[in-house]
Design brief:
By secondary structure, the protein is of the alpha+beta class. The protein is 25% helix and 14% strand. The radius of gyration is 15 Å and the shape is globular.
Length: 80
C-alpha cells in the first residue's frame, strides 16, 4: 500500500509505514497527548533524525510540543 501511495503521488523516495507504531515507540516520539481510546492514538510527534553512514543517530530534533520545529539552519548544520 505504501508503494502504491508513493507512486500515485509521484514520491520518489522510500516511505515508512509503521501501522503498529513500533518504531515511534522505539524512538520515543509517540504523541502522548492523544488518549489510547482515540482513533488516531499511536501518531508520532514530528521529528527529524540525522543518521550517519554507519546507521547511528547523530542528531535528533523533536519536541513534546508538535508546534516546535527546528530552525532550518540547525538541521543543515547537523547534516554537515
Amino acid at each position: 500500500m505504501t508503494a502504491r501511495f508513493a507512486k500515485a503521488r509521484g514520491i520518489g523516495y522510500t516511505l515508512l509505514s509503521d501501522a503498529e507504531s513500533a518504531l515511534i515507540r522505539a524512538f520515543d516520539v509517540v504523541d502522548k497527548s492523544v488518549p489510547e481510546s482515540a482513533a488516531w492514538y499511536g501518531l508520532a510527534r514530528p521529528g527529524i533524525f540525522v543518521i550517519d553512514p554507519k546507521g547511528r543517530i547523530t542528531h535528533r530534533f523533536s519536541d513534546a510540543d508538535y508546534t516546535v520545529r527546528p530552525a532550518p539552519q540547525d538541521v543543515l548544520d547537523a547534516l554537515r
